[in-house]
Amino acid sequence: MKEFLRKNIRELVPYSCARDEFTGTAEVYLDANENFYDYSDFGYNRYPDPLCKELRLEIEWKMNLPFDNTVIGNGSDELIDNLIRMFCEPNRDSILVMPPTYGAYKVFSDVNAVECKTLPLNEDFSIDLEGFLEISNSNKESINQCKVAFVCSPNNPTGESQSLQTIEDMASIFEGILVVDEAYAEFSDKESATTLVKKYDNLVVLKTFSKCWGLAGARLGIIVANKDLCELMNKVKAPYNVGIPAQKAGLDQLKFSDEILKDRDKVVQRREDYSLKFSSLDIVEKVYESDANFLLMKTKDSNKICNILQEKAIVIRNRTNDLNCKNCIRITIGSDEECQRVFKELSEIKL
After folding, report:
1. Which long-range contacts link 121-124 to residues 24+ away (Cβ below 8 Å)?
2. Is the pLDDT of residue 61 over 90?
3. Which of 75, 138, 206, 280 is 20 to 30 A off residue 48, Cα-Cα?
């Protein structure tokens, strides 16, 4: 894994913050030039734990993600950005994405002046393993290497999951870092790629509090990887990247894990129910199978449908510009009342 790192990252001497140099409990803290007045009564006048140790211990307990194999980010987006910066030389190396997929991967490659190569998914939205093997083989002889490959599973916007065997095949052949983004994995019954992290040191899995755990506003992402990569990530990330309010929100939310997972089951059942209902509509040509908390549907005219719904104060996503998603719309599974309203409005549209 370290051979893929940029030279300056391998040699990086990380910033040593006050909370890194002292561990334990003190009665007087005069080391970090903080304001001793706490106007919030929540300790917001103090810097947060840079390693989010308390939150990671609770994540280990409630999510079964080993403490030494996790790093917390300011949303998964920060972690994606950091991975590209760690492994890809600007104006030389590249990343690989598999469209249609999450658009932020390309945005962060552009921000970091790193080329974004594409390997389109097959028509059934499965991964083109033969194409991936060709890219991996050519990578060994290339000066401008593809250093990081992103797999979104379950995928956004399509909703399909890749099999664990496919992920393992990719990790075993790829000469680079394979990142599996599992933002929606809690809504799937497929086995998580985190089970492979200790076997493949080039495998990284992203998790998030934004979807199933209901904390999109807190911005909490989790990287799951081998211990060495996690230690490197802690060197690269901002010293206090996750604030006290966000860490507290994560801890508070995990207290309700049983209730949250029961609600997750309700969302999954509602997804299956409305998949059948939407399939019955004249304007819908196909509803794709989904392992996420949304449904992708091919319609007769996605532009008109989205415009009509907006006039009714209903916002969904038009994915017609995504590869192989012509006239597709994506609808999040909300409350039963919200889903019923969308179904009613769709059923009244005549195209």
Report:
1. 121/155, 121/158, 121/323, 121/324, 123/324, 124/160
2. yes
3. 206
